[in-house]
Amino acid sequence: MSAPTVATPSRRAILSLYTAMLRSSRAFSSYNFRNYFLSKTRDTFRSIQAEKDPEKLSSMYAEAKQDLAVLRRSAIVNQLYGGWRLSVEAQQSERDPDTVKDRGDN
């Protein structure tokens, strides 16, 4: 018997997953979490892009899909229990006051 063939994800599927992960990463209200997950997403998809082995590519794609589900849930929790804005974010509000919303209990 031969080994089962592995369905390699299409380029469109990979790009769709990449944009979904970037969107979910941007949904974090916490500056540090948001930047960490944006960086991690970019690194993950650079490694997926460089992979040549179809079996390993499929495995990496499946793992990234699972990570997306976790990322979405984590972003929702982070939005609920946000916290204080950092001084880095306050500099952004000076440029565009509509982008950063301050807490009402200051």
UniProtKB/TrEMBL annotation:
GO terms for cellular component: L-cysteine desulfurase complex; mitochondrion. It comes from the Eukaryota. Pfam families: Complex1_LYR. GO terms for biological process: iron-sulfur cluster assembly. Residues 12-69 form the Complex 1 LYR protein domain. Belongs to the complex I LYR family. This is Complex 1 LYR protein domain-containing protein.
